[in-house]
Automatic annotation (TrEMBL):
Lineage: Bacteria, Pseudomonadati, Pseudomonadota, Alphaproteobacteria, Hyphomicrobiales
Protein source organism: Bradyrhizobium quebecense
Family in the record: Belongs to the TrhO family.
Purpose of the protein: Catalyzes oxygen-dependent 5-hydroxyuridine (ho5U) modification at position 34 in tRNAs.
InterPro entries documented for this protein: Rhodanese-like_dom (IPR001763), Rhodanese-like_dom_sf (IPR036873), TrhO (IPR020936), TRHO_N (IPR040503)
Name under which the protein is recorded: tRNA uridine(34) hydroxylase
Catalytic activity, EC: 1.14.-.-
DNA repair found in the keyword field: no
Enzyme class: oxidoreductase
Length: 250
């Protein structure tokens, strides 16, 4: 029976994030879940796998249970499947940021770009006056991206600020549409660009994974596969699991 995989995040004030680590680890261990969860002052970010019942119980606890006390009521969540357990172990780690930009003053809960649903993405990126920007790392872009998207050629998301300073200009790039795997990098990147004076910044809600989940292949402007940070390596349309050999050589 295939396992259920949940990718999730939310920017939310968690000043007690250090105290949440062990109860969260115990919750995951009790449900026999494996994967990686990051906790920081700014929120939560993770991908875990387990049985349907275990994943559903975990998500219910995050959203409605006493551990987070209702603070994760706007969780960005995507489900997929794995033929085998895609993680070796369970890791719950404390971080300065749940996605590392290197600027802790950026707060997506206060200011963020305009969300664009997967069903509206094709129309937006077809606009001739918009810059379509892939915010992922270079090796991820090499596996697949949207037609015509700009590759910032960064090795890690922490280099995005440097890329923006060198190559983006609020006076020239008046409309920017950005995307990433699940949406979290774009939330922070869009908040950063708005703070730098860019006036019209859009980002794909739920990221590439949501687009691949909802968009029929015949209507898709995505080319290639979407790299994921687990042993499945890559996913295609319908969030279909791709084998390592297929993902590398197609």
């Amino acid at each position: 029976m295939p396992l259920k995989v949940a990718a999730f995040y939310q920017f939310a004030a968690l000043p007690d994030f250090r105290a949440l680590r062990e109860p969260l680890r115990a919750l995951c261990a009790g449900l026999d879940l494996k994967g990686s969860v990051l906790l920081a002052h700014e929120g939560i970010n993770g991908t875990i796998a387990g049985s349907d019942e275990a994943i559903d119980g975990f998500v219910a606890e995050l959203r409605h249970g006493p551990l987070f006390g209702g603070r994760l009521d706007n969780l960005e969540l995507k489900f997929s499947e794995a033929a085998q357990m895609p993680f070796q172990r369970l890791k719950v780690r404390l971080k300065k940021e749940i996605v590392t930009l290197g600027d802790t003053t950026v707060d997506p809960t206060r200011q963020v770009g305009t969300y664009v649903d997967a069903g509206d993405w094709n129309e937006l990126i077809a606009s001739p006056d918009i810059m379509v920007l892939d915010t992922r790392n270079a090796f991820e872009v090499a596996m697949g991206s949207f037609e015509g998207a700009v590759d910032p050629r960064i090795a890690s998301f922490g280099q995005f600020k440097e890329f923006a300073a060198r190559h983006l200009d609020p006076a020239k790039h008046r409309r920017i549409a950005m995307f990433c795997t699940g949406g979290i990098r774009c939330e922070k990147a869009s908040a950063y660009l708005l703070a730098q004076g860019f006036s019209e910044v859009y980002h794909l809600k739920g990221g590439i994974l949501k687009y691949l989940e909802e968009t029929p292949p015949q209507d898709s402007r995505w080319r290639g596969d979407c790299f994921v940070f687990d042993e499945r390596v890559a996913l295609g349309h319908g969030l279909r699991e791709r084998g390592h050999e297929d993902a590398v050589h197609e």
